[in-house]
Amino acid sequence: MSVPYTIHEGARLRRILRRKEVVILQYAKKVNMSPQGLYRYFWQANIKKSKLASLLSAIPISQEEFYHWSSLEGNPCHQGELLLLHLGKQKMKIEHLVEGLQLLPNQVFEWVDTATFSNQQLEKLSTFFNDLSFLDTPHLFTQEVNWREAYLDICEANHQHIRKIATLEQKINDLEATLTK
Question: Rounded to two decimals, what is the model's pTM?
């Protein structure tokens, strides 16, 4: 089995579960794990083949389908994904968008998960981008689907790291607050 590019297996598994609208609590029970244990696998770039096989059999999906899976084929991209793809096409880092929109990184990553932007989000985006037509024309991104999928996998992994950093920062702030009392 050849993999078309290096993928973050945990992020890929999470994207598949999200696309198939699998409830994490039910899925965790199905694979005899706690939700926290399952989330640990979402952080792993490489999952042991035997464990991955058991995780995939509960979906059900084969390892071949997992490695060649493309959530974008035959499915329209939602606006958050289109924003990510536009950033990639413009070779723009997400940090640049964070600064331009004057938002926190985790707020921008919530946007990435958004299927349809609100009027406020669209107004804010229009101050940063002159033309928002990329949100209505997913065919602009038609190229090898695997590369788009790889980009989204990397963004998902990045998103997970930012959430972990935010959680750790909150824990540090809580500890500092308790120490100063």
Answer: 0.45
Burial of residue 55, with CB atoms counted within 10 A of its CB: 0-12 exposed, 13-18 middle, 19 or more buried:
buried
For the chain, the domains span 9-68, 79-180
Q: Could you tell me the CA-to-CA distances from 100 to 60, 110, 126 in Å, in that order?
A: 42, 16, 11
Long-range pairs of 162-165 with CB within 8 A, sequence gap ≥ 24: 162/105, 162/106, 162/109, 163/106, 163/109, 164/43
Give average pLDDT by consecutive 10-residue segment, the chain, 181 residues: 57 82 86 85 81 89 78 62 74 80 79 80 87 72 56 72 84 90 77
Burial 82-96 (b: 16+ CB within 10 A, else e): bbbbbbbeeeeebee
